[in-house]
Specification:
With 354 residues, this protein is of the alpha+beta class. It has helices spanning 9-20, 86-104, 149-157, 182-185, 187-196, 272-276, 323-326, and strands spanning 26-34, 38-42, 48-52, 67-74, 82-85, 108-110, 114-116, 119-124, 127-132, 164-172, 177-181, 202-211, 214-219, 222-227, 248-256, 260-264, 285-294, 297-301, 307-311, 332-341, 346-350.
Length: 354
């Protein structure tokens, strides 16, 4: 009688490993070692698995001896190890957790791991998602000129790794779609703050963006806009000459809509026009600098805060005088004051002789 083949415990374990593991299985194990490009996992009687660096979740910190749950990608490679993925296992569990978050409407904390010009890339519970620029709060919205694409990306890159509170805006597991919103996460609190504000209130804020037509301000999470005409009593050609991003300002609320405040800096200051205008009496001769030339006349700076208009009909004897031929920008001329209307803040001038 032939001797029966001796079967060792290793043979039994190996056979059990082959029989028991299948691609897609979720298995528990213990980390044996953490190397630069891979992590080895002890699967007990199922053998040893290897997790490539790319299959480790974003920001996941691993240490030897730590228990982990992994998904089987391949049951056995050339070296005898099973190919595992921590990311996939986390993702499968993550979708279940995300479904719970969506149902409850909970606000969750996230940290973006990357950015592009469209928004922030986020991973939550092993599932990757996206936070569009349009869904950022007033505090984080990149207020730069529309043509400054590099400026937008620079602002978004500054948010990478920063803890933010968001709500899930849209989700579809079948298409792997997961969209977040920071605006929705702070919506309830903003409504309460809006109710406490009224026109005429003085508020403190921080400049978040400066554009051609004004400056954006973050007022405790509420977005405000200071239009260029409300920055100073002086003529403002470039808002960046008056305010800078990150600057703290006091402003007056001059209008309130559903999502934004209209603010004014100049209305918290005394109007210098009212003081300076008294020196220009009706019928007096004044000297001024031509600042703008239009088809209907020219605007003339009489003092730092007082600007007046000389209408085309007051340029000379001819009713069809051309302002472009009569004036040059920045030239100084003598005029006669025709009228001063303090209520409408208007001064009319004439070039005609009496």
């Amino acid at each position: 009688m032939a001797d029966a083949k001796t079967v060792t415990m290793d043979d039994l374990l190996k056979e059990e490993s082959v029989k028991s593991l299948a691609a897609g299985d979720v298995v528990d194990g213990t980390i044996l070692s953490v190397k630069k490009h891979e992590v080895l996992v002890d699967l007990g009687p199922l053998g040893v698995g290897v997790v490539p660096r790319r299959e480790i979740g974003f920001g996941q910190q691993l240490e030897a001896g730590e228990p982990v749950t992994a998904s089987v990608v391949e049951t056995e490679m050339e070296d005898g190890y099973s190919l595992l993925s921590l990311r996939k296992a986390a993702k499968d569990r993550g979708w279940d957790e995300i479904a719970r978050v969506v149902e409850s409407g909970d606000v969750v904390e996230i940290s973006p791991y990357d950015a592009n010009r469209g928004g922030l890339l986020i991973e939550l519970e092993g599932v990757r998602g996206f936070l569009p620029v349009s869904q950022l709060s007033a505090e984080h919205y990149p207020r730069v000129g529309s043509s400054d694409k590099d400026g937008i990306l620079q602002r978004l890159n500054a948010l990478v790794g920063k803890t933010m509170k968001v709500r899930v805006l849209d989700v579809d597991r079948k298409t792997n779609k997961l969209i977040f919103s920071e605006k929705e996460a702070i919506k309830d609190g903003l409504s309460e703050r809006f109710e406490k504000l009224k026109i005429g209130d003085k508020v403190k804020g921080v400049i978040t963006g400066v554009v051609d037509y004004g400056a954006f301000v973050n007022v405790e999470g509420i977005e405000g806009l200071i239009h260029i005409s409300e920055i100073s009593w002086e003529r403002v050609n470039n808002p960046s000459d008056y305010v800078k991003v990150g600057q703290s300002v006091d402003a007056k609320i001059i209008a309130i809509d559903k999502e934004r405040l209209s603010l004014s800096l100049k209305q918290l200051q005394e109007d210098p026009w009212l003081k300076e205008v008294d020196q220009f009496g009706k019928g007096s001769e004044v000297e001024g600098t031509v600042t703008r030339i239009t088809p209907f006349g020219a605007f003339v700076q009489l003092s730092p805060s007082v600007e007046a208009l000389v209408h085309v009909s007051e340029l000379g004897e001819s009713e069809s005088a051309d302002p472009e031929k009569v004036f040059k920008l920045n030239e100084r001329k003598m005029f006669r004051v025709l009228d001063v209307d303090k209520d409408s803040r208007k001064i009319s001038l004439s070039l005609k002789k009496k």
